[in-house]
Amino acid sequence: MAEPFRHGHRVTYAECTVGDHIYHSRYLDLLEAARGEFMRALGKPVLALQEADLIFPVIEARVRYKLPARYDDLLAIEVWLTRAERVRLNFGHAFSIRSRN
User: How confident is the model over 11-19, as a mean pLDDT?
Assistant: First the structure.
């Protein structure tokens, strides 16, 4: 397996709850952003693929929450391709908190 693509993201105030952690559904937005950057790094921006009549609906997502990411944390989001079939791409993802402040 090739090295995972790494996308950096600093947690914004808008992504957090009053309890100072990312609201659970916002993680899916972060995964989408990381996948988009992954495809761009491969030379296949998602918009160019859409213009070629290729679409990428998400049909399944599973998330296991291990640690909360908090406001101003710097995240490293890893993305890798786990399976490529004729009409399906499967991705793996992992988050790590690199630093706070």
Answer: 95
